[in-house]
Amino acid sequence: MSRNTASSKKQNTVRINAGEWRSRLLKFPDAEGLRPTPERVRQTVFNWLGQDLTGLHCLDLFAGSGVMGFEALSRNARSAVLVEKTAAVYKAILDNKTALKADAARAFNMDALSFLGQDSQLFDVIFLDPPYNQGWLQKVLPLLPAHLNPDGFVYAEAEYAIEPDEVWRVVKQSKAGNVFYHLLKLHGN
Length: 189
Hints:
By secondary structure, this protein is an alpha/beta fold. The chain has one domain (3-186): Vaccinia Virus protein VP39 (Rossmann fold, 3-Layer(aba) Sandwich), CATH 3.40.50. The protein contains six helices and nine strands. The chain has helices spanning 3-8, 39-49, 67-74, 87-100, 112-118, 136-140; strands spanning 12-15, 25-28, 57-60, 79-83, 105-108, 123-128, 148-158, 168-176, 179-186. Strand 4, helix 4 (87-100) and strand 5 form a beta-alpha-beta unit.
């Protein structure tokens, strides 16, 4: 087998931190802009959210590897919707869903804006880790109040610090390397 063939079939992996599927590996292919949330950052985010997500409905809007949605389910979330536009990455999500027997996960192979335009479910936690330098947060954040339970949270990663505005307040924020990550809530909640 040639080196090129071997490297083109290489699968990347990311490990689930805690819960029912602790230490299980998720496999995913290379794709432009795909960079799973680092383990240390995920630990912090789930500390912010309280570790146990029992009964919560979660949306992983730019799912990529699906690690945020699967991590939420591993921590007892009632459901997780994973939205991924890239076909090969979406297929990996389906393969991981099958391997984990994650019946509470639903996956959609579509663009984030298309999903938000046709879905009316309310979520308790929305995970946003869009590709950088494409203006996704500016496009998506204004649409999320219609999809978020009043006391819900939005977790957002970005290449810059998100500032509070008339709609969103920043509850927590931190930085790891070049990644800024934030926990947002609607004002008044």
